[in-house]
Amino acid sequence: MPLYGYAATQASPLFSDMTPEEITRLCELLHASERRYPKGASLISPGDPLPAFGLLLSGTVQVSMDDVDGNHIVMANVIPGATFAEALVCSGAAESPICAAATQDCAVLWLQGAPLTSPAFFADPLCARFAANFIRTLSHRILQFNDRVQILSKKTIREKLITLFSQQVQRQRTRQIVLDMDRSALADYLGTDRSALSRELSRMKHAGMISYWKNQFYIHHT
What we know:
Elements: H1 6-11, H2 20-29, E1 33-37, E2 42-44, E3 52-58, E4 61-66, E5 72-78, E6 83-84, H3 86-91, E7 99-102, E8 106-112, H4 119-123, H5 125-152, H6 157-172, E9 176-178, H7 183-190, H8 194-206, E10 210-213, E11 216-219
Antiparallel strand pairs: 1-8, 2-7, 3-6, 3-8, 4-5, 4-7, 9-11, 10-11
């Protein structure tokens, strides 16, 4: 039985406080399979069946969808140790409404969703621990979407940035915050274009509201 990317799996909330042996056993029960993708590769396309959800072992993945007008909406930027598509897999969705693409060369551990629908799976104490971790992961994802809704409900780029910065200051517990996305990804996340975002960041910097270097920001006042 191959050993999966334990640096990422042990860092994942799904396998919190579990030994390598326990992780290996759960991977067997969930029929895990590891795949590698080059930058730009499509992992999930709209209309694809969704038998499994992904745990990112290395690299980065962007999850997105297009609205009815063809506008590209970034749903999440996934980093190693994080999961994606788990809510859709558990919902029993017949077809994927989302896209998932590699934004860097990446490795993904695919975990089958079918065992999670079996009562026998949860009778095992180890699987019950996994189930508790899985519920916490889904709850955290819901909170992330709530944050996103707050941001997208704002009308101007500045209002969106202020909301994002306020969320991150609270979460990171410091006014010196680091965003896990570059300018292009940040523009997609805010629902704007990169040039308009850069202009607004420059205006906020000149107004003494923020200082920044690449993806590091210091929030003076908002």
